[in-house]
Design brief:
Blueprint lengths: L4 H18 L6 H15 L3 H15 L5 H14 L3 H18 L14
Helix pairs in contact: 1-2, 1-3, 1-4, 2-4, 3-4, 3-5
C-alpha cells in the first residue's frame, strides 16, 4: 500500500475531480460523463488507484454526515474502471481511518485549559 510520490499525486488528483462533481446536489449526465472521462485520463491504466479512491471514500463516508457524497465518489471511480476486488480491500482501510478520525488528540502535556 506504500505509494511513490507520483502515485500519491495521482490519488490526490482523482480525489479532487471525483469530489468536485460528487458535492453537487444535481449533476447533469454530461458533466458526470466528463468527470468519468477525466478520471480515466488521470488514472491511465492504474485501476488500482481508482480502486483506492473509491474504497477509501466508501469506507470513510459510512460514518460521515453526508455519506451520499462519498458513495457518489466511489460510483464515479467505479464507472471510470476501478478494480472491484481492490475496492473491497480499500473500503476496510477507509472504515479503519474513519474509526480513528473522531478520536480527540491526547491531552498529555497540554495546558489545563485545553482539556
Amino acid at each position: 500500500m506504500a505509494h511513490s510520490e507520483a502515485d500519491r499525486i495521482i490519488v490526490i488528483r482523482l480525489t479532487r475531480v471525483a469530489r468536485r462533481i460528487a458535492r453537487w446536489r444535481t449533476v447533469t449526465s454530461e458533466r458526470e460523463a466528463q468527470a468519468v472521462e477525466d478520471l480515466r485520463e488521470i488514472a491511465g491504466d492504474r485501476t488500482d488507484l481508482l480502486a483506492e479512491v473509491a474504497g477509501l471514500a466508501w469506507g470513510f463516508g459510512e460514518t460521515q454526515p453526508n455519506p451520499s457524497v462519498h458513495r457518489h465518489i466511489a460510483a464515479l471511480c467505479a464507472r471510470a474502471g476501478a478494480d472491484t476486488e481492490q475496492v473491497r480491500e480499500w473500503i476496510e482501510v477507509g472504515r479503519h481511518r474513519s474509526a480513528f478520525a473522531g478520536i480527540p488528540p491526547a491531552t498529555v502535556g497540554r495546558p489545563r485549559y485545553w482539556r
